[in-house]
Design goal:
By secondary structure, the protein is an alpha+beta fold. About 55% of the residues lie in helices and about 15% in strands. The chain has helices at about 1-25, 45-50, 55-60, 65-85, 95-115, 125-135, 155-165, 170-180, 200-210, 240-270, and strands spanning about 35, 40-45, 140, 145-150, 190-195, 220, 225-235, 235-240.
Length: about 290
């Protein structure tokens, strides 16, 4: 036991000596130079600019010295990987350059569109109130049920799972193990359903369930064979203005933005010379089809 403790202390000591030596290597840093990685110098200003790009939650972690040190280490790690990539010539790789160009185009377009919207897409309280008053029916929610489901490919699979559920096995565990639906990532939860918003067979079975935790019979749809469990039910409800206003504001803002962008594109098209060879868009049928 004592030997192991001594060995551990030796390893830790060697690690710190190597770490200190690696930090001390190279030219001394000057003034506002925060770090040097080979020939690349990171200034304090650049470091703070990088921190400024972080999402709000992560920025709060930068208030402590420990957080800033951790971020600097990540910065250094990224720079080391970048330098290695450049040594391998990846900065001249055609596929990489194509992705950079695509990103560059997207960034230019996003910046331009943002400038177009600036000061023109604001939605006032009066506009929101008027829209709610004139379109109140849009904010009436019918009866809704919240359900989970398990989906499998074949009837025999569904029958076996139904037998296991009837014997008391855990629904969530069986979802995770057998369901082929993307909703498996949410433990089979598909949220609240309104009438007329999903497939008829699925909807009929879901709304026929009465008690929380009640299971449906096996339901066949184009997606496979479902077993549905009721999680909750909400009665018809008229959303109040306070409940609907943020969705209305977002809808009206997007509507304004679409109008601004459409009008701008129409002006650009009027002043541009555009030629299209529509023959190249024709899809030729394969022989024998």
């Amino acid at each position: 036991m004592a030997k192991n403790s001594k060995l551990f202390l030796v390893v830790v000591s060697v690690f710190f000596l190597l770490f200190t030596a690696s930090c001390d290597r190279g030219k001394p840093l000057k003034g506002k130079e925060l770090a040097r990685i080979n020939d690349r110098v990171i200034t304090l200003e650049e470091f703070e600019q990088e921190m400024g790009q972080l999402p709000p939650y992560y920025k709060t972690l930068m208030f402590s010295e420990e957080g800033r040190k951790r971020f600097l280490q990540e910065f250094i790690n990224a720079e080391l990987l970048l330098q290695e990539g450049k040594k391998k010539g990846l900065d001249k790789d055609k596929a990489v350059l194509a992705k950079i160009e695509l990103f560059k185009k997207g960034l230019i377009i996003d910046t331009l569109v943002g400038e177009l919207y600036q000061g023109k897409d604001e939605v006032g309280d009066k506009e929101v109130e008027t829209y709610y008053r004139e379109n109140k029916k849009q904010f009436f929610l019918g009866e809704r049920v919240k359900v989970r489901h398990i989906v499998v490919k074949t009837m025999p699979e569904a029958q076996e799972i139904k037998r296991r559920l009837d014997r008391g096995e855990d629904f969530i565990i069986l979802v995770r193990k057998y369901s082929i639906s993307p909703s498996r990532a949410q433990d089979g939860d598909v949220g609240y359903l309104e009438r007329g918003k999903s497939g008829k067979e699925f909807e009929r079975a879901a709304f026929s369930l009465q008690r929380q935790g009640e299971l449906s019979n096996i339901v066949k749809t184009t997606l496979g064979y479902h077993i549905i469990r009721l999680e909750g039910r909400k009665q018809p409800q008229q959303l109040t203005f306070s409940e609907a206003q943020e969705n209305i504001r977002q809808f009206l803002r997007e509507k304004k933005r679409k109008e601004i962008l459409t009008a701008h594109l129409q002006e650009l098209q009027k002043g541009a010379q555009i030629s299209i060879n529509e023959q190249l868009l024709v899809v030729e049928e394969e022989e024998g089809s």
